[in-house]
Design a protein that fits this description.
The complex is a heterodimer. Chain A has 2 domains: about 150 residues, Beta Polymerase, domain 2, CATH 3.30.460; about 260 residues, Cytochrome-c3 Hydrogenase, chain B, CATH 1.10.645.10. The model of chain A has no long low-confidence stretch (mean pLDDT about 85). By secondary structure, chain A is α+β, with helices and mostly antiparallel strands. Chain A contains 20 helices and 15 strands. Chain B is an all-alpha fold. The radius of gyration of chain B is 21 Å and the shape is globular. The chains are: A alpha+beta, B mainly alpha. Chains A and B meet through α9, α10, α12 and α19 of A and α7, α11 and α14 of B.
Chain lengths: ~525, ~325
Amino acid sequence: MILAAKTIEEFRSEFKSVDISEVPYDKQGYHLAIEAQTGNLLNIVEFLDRREFYIVDLFCVDYQDYLELVYFFNTHRELCRVKVTLKLDPEKPVAPTISHIYTIARWYEREAHEFFGIYFEGHPGLTYLFLHSGIDHYPLRRKHVPVPDNDRQLLDSFKPQEEEDCFFVNLGPQHPSTHGVLRVVLKMDGEYIVSAEPVLGYLHRMHEKMAESKSYLQFLPNPARMDYPGALLFNLAHVETVEKLCGIAVPERAKYIRTITCELNRIASHLLWLGAFPADLGGLTPFMYAFDDRENILDILEGVTGSRLTYCYFRFGGLYNDIDEESFVSATKRFIERMRERLVMYDKLITGNVIFINRIKNVGIMEQAKVRKYGSSGPFIRSTGIPFDMRKVDPYEAYGSIDFEIPTGHTGDNMDRYLVRMKEMEISLNIIEEAMKKLPSGPFQTEKVPKKLKPPKGDIYHAIESTRGETGVYIVSDESDTPYRMRWRVPSYSNLMTFPYLAQGLLIADAIATLGSYDIVVPEIDR
Amino acid sequence: MCDTIINIVNIVGKEVVRTVVGLIGVFIVVIGNAIMLTWAERKVAGHMQRRIGPKEVGPFGLIQSFADSVKLLGKELLTPANVERPLYFLAPTLIFVPVLVTFVVIPFDGFLQVKDINVGILVILAFSSLTVLSILIAGWGSNNKYSLIGAVRSVAQNIAYEIPLLLSLLPIIFMANSFSLRDVVEAQKGLWFVFYQPVAFLIFFVASVAETNRTPFDLPEAESELVAGFHTEYSGMRFSLFFLAEYTNMFIVSAIAVTFFLGGYQGPILPGVVWFFMKTYVLVFVLLWFRWTFPRVRFDQLLNFSWKILIPVSFLNLLVTGGILKL
């Protein structure tokens, strides 16, 4: 709050004519709103850059009369979300690029270009990001806007130019180590990587468009399909945002159960990564061990949610059903005990292995100062030493009443990312244990939730800490029962953007290890 | 005159019959060993990973690898469009020649040896270097970037590790005073050479893991980096020939280690051939154990390890051995 007030003051003294207003955070999820013009946008972004804001999201909303570009910024020190908007003419939308200030904007702007037809002046390569084959109109525009021919030529985005001394390798989309269908075009000099360019869109399903034609309740199963290893957390992001938008209260018991199940899911997701990461390094045995443990969590969650992977457990104002005192609670207690022993075993099996240490130590180092430019979040930035965790910064559910620490690393190399995730599992166990102790009795669902939700007019941004980082949902409501625009800010997307930077000059083996340490989920990136 | 001819025919005939029978025997051992090792690897992997491994086909799943071989035989031999055809076809066949020839000089027992050549170990080392040639041909002929990277890695790796391999065997040749494998075994009547030369044994074993492209040195086929490395484009029976060669190579390096360091076929009570196979398979098990325990090393680490540690140490070992023997 202090930062928000300070920013306002400084902003007003620097930009006399620009409109800045304070926004009720409880209602809309951000502190400041700035209405920029095409002329002063860059100055405003530079102003925020100087104050060490990181970029949360950049996207567009089509209000028919005008297109609105929305930029979200925040800081790692204190929660101070700033929303910068830029109105554009729908007939000829042109905006200045900010990709030279914030690197991740290179991707966000390409996304806005292909979905809305916005041109960004000065963008280094405004090619298509997700949509690779013949689209005839801009999919997220409200009216039918055909794609002009000269624009469609950009479709054949990346054609490698063969050069002397270098050759290109297509890593993926069918490759054992790309964790799904990610494709990375590697420019190689022998075994060294000259440059790496991720190519997205192989799993693109247009969830954001789907949301516009479904009611809030109907969209409930979708988020689980974005991040399948951490399905409950994405489910939570959606449910919480809608609750906040409609002002639905959640009973205490439901809050605690949400916390417990989410942390269980977080451990399951980290275990999946723990299996896959050593496998990327050639050690296949931990994979089976980790899956063995993960199986326990899946069994517990299956008992309460009914599904094993793509959970849809949370409802607006509560839960789908209550946890079973006997089977759930005792099974979870057994699991915690078992998992603590297993974590010690993993330490012995993996962490101390000389080959393993030599392979990942001081490889893929992410500098703390650079993280901001990419808008990265989650364990990825905590490994560089930034203790930024939405659970702590903006406590939701029961996290406010539970005491837990945030593990951080020092150098931001692969080893630190590994250690941070291992520590996080341990802390999740503590959180579950404490939440189980404090678990209040009472109803698990609020009584009066209407079947058809018609939230008041307005917009809201809400973020939670999913297994991979800050997962945010931005909803624009027009008082109908479907969202006017729903935007998902996904952590893997902005984490992956750092890969071209980190992979430069690495050996192919190290690049694979680095990619493995990200813990990316491709359906989440592609949405 | 007549007698001499009959004599010569007799001797030559004996040799021919011995060689033919020997080769058939070797072939059976090679195939049987590869099939058994496939089963063993899956079973060992299973138990190390808290699974059971194959168990459906036959008792303890023993027939599983036979079923797999039949399946692979029945598969269509797919030839990708852009391969260098002669090289692509040659590689899987070529990889089997050194494997078969090496078996000829290994003494399974006092009498069970196809041919005792007085430069036996040189034959083994010379022919086993051919394996890398066929890997290079496979990688080049496949016309695939992953295959090529795998093949190039394989060449660098084999050159780097052949040197410590040879240097670790030389002290034994000093001590046995012969290049013949049988003489080496006979020289270990009293105490096995592993007790005189523990450093050489360790170097030899590490180098041979690298020579056989096994984890942690399985860089030519590193599946998480290069999909399947040099044999990415091979399928069906052509792929299984590479597979067969890999398992046979594992057996060969273990057999050489047994011959040179662990007393070969010598041992009390049981017949020599049993001792030989027992010792060999213990070493093979260690190789399997490695694979399911260690992650893969990086390429520069692999080469550094050989050039900066293994080679100097094995030279030192050679010098010390020579010095002591001279005294």
